[in-house]
# Entry
Amino acid sequence: MKIATILGTRPEIIKMAPIIDEISKRGIDQIILHTGQHYDEEMSDNFFRDLEIPAPDYNIHVGSGTHGRQTGLMMQGIEEILLDEKPDIVLVQGDTNAVLAGAIVASKLHIAIGHVEAGLRSFDMTMPEEVNRRVADVCSAMYFVPTEESAINLLAEGFSRKNLIITGNTVVDACFRHLEIAKKKGFEEESLAELDIDNMDNILTLTMHRAENVDDKQRVTNIIGALKELSDMNIIFPIHPRTKNTLQNFGLFDELNDLEHVHIIKPLGYLDFLQLTSASTLILTDSGGLQEEAITLDVPALTLRYNTERPETVTAGGNILVGSDKNAILENAFKILNDNEFADKMRNAPNPYGMGDSAKLTVDAIEDYYAKGLLDISAPEDIMGSFTRKMAMVTEDITVNEFEDSKNALIHLVFDGDKMRFPNDDLNIKGMCVSYDERE
Ligand code: UD1
Ligand code: UDP
# Structure
């Protein structure tokens, strides 16, 4: 079996690293294809080093650009490589342009796609990421969904449960695996070492790069307004290159940099960043991955967004959405700082993203699909049979599996009162309403 992994940005490298590592350990043939969307050393190469994964076999070097240009160049480059390498499965992760390009190209070449971190939905189609993740899900053959909630998103859109594998999120694997290594190693980045983080109180780690925030002067101004008033905190801001550019263009960079309690530093390597976040009292971010890492590391998060495709973090109590609303940022930050009970509750929020074994579960499932021939995508040879969509109120003690066997059916949705449930094979569906396809 040959597995091709497509990645191109910082979070994809971090979240694919545990899977790449697991594939290597099992001696499976693999290629790594970098789109080159992130190219600065501190946005790309440093993560291959810190996470100890092999350098990419290919780099398409698409660089920065508009969405259409970037995606088009990626598609062209990915197609050439896949035609040559003929992998059995292509893995894409998350919601970047690499995911969009990789999924479209591989599906047209009839190569199975495994979407890692499938099923997330912000329901906000103005976000490029929402478009990317939805398109990737349409094209995929295997869905590695982090939680039951994300699985239910896919079921509600009509996807079959057969190809949904609930794995947790590989970011937990990456955090658990590297935090101890990081702590032993100490800080690599000089600016961080100089700040003497170990003896610093009230650290607030800030990251922001989301287009809807940093490309909007009013929103950035509101956020900076809040930062100014958080002078009881030591704000450490490893700045994303996109944000540095826009703050400079808006003439806001110096104003922020001049604040005594704000330390703008360059983007950190993964080991440095883990030490910083785990030592923080509070994380203020618009990052997707950081919302997950915050709850994994038991650090309260305030998310600078109006919606999130990670609602589990909010429901669990570890994350609060504050938008770019100065008052909401300040009110919640002061509460975390001054109200121990409130802060403890956030810190103790249960982690919805698994135990750190996501990479293992992902590669187990890929090997299983390969062994069963389920990665072969070929045109159907049997004439289509008919099937009917039905609903039933289940009155007997019966599991999902037993119901499907008895009716030659596939269950899609399960309603338990007014709640949707994920149809695990062994879920007893007595008293629940199910929708299913009956095959004839
Ligand atoms: C991309 C992803 C976003 C992800 C983020 C992770 C898409 C649509 N966006 O956003 O989902 O959350 O990566 O960080 O795929 N730049 C550099 N050096 C680099 C990379 C970028 O200077 O190595 C600057 C360039 O000015 C570029 C800008 O950052 O125009 C934005 O980069 P881009 O890759 O387009 O999007 P991100 O904001 O990084
Ligand atoms: N990260 C890092 N150094 C930094 C900032 C972030 O290593 O200076 C890591 C962080 O731990 C997380 C990932 O980058 O795993 C998140 O990337 P980003 O916020 O760029 O993208 P998103 O997750 O929003 O797509």
User: Anything to note?
Assistant: The chain is about 45% helix and 20% strand.
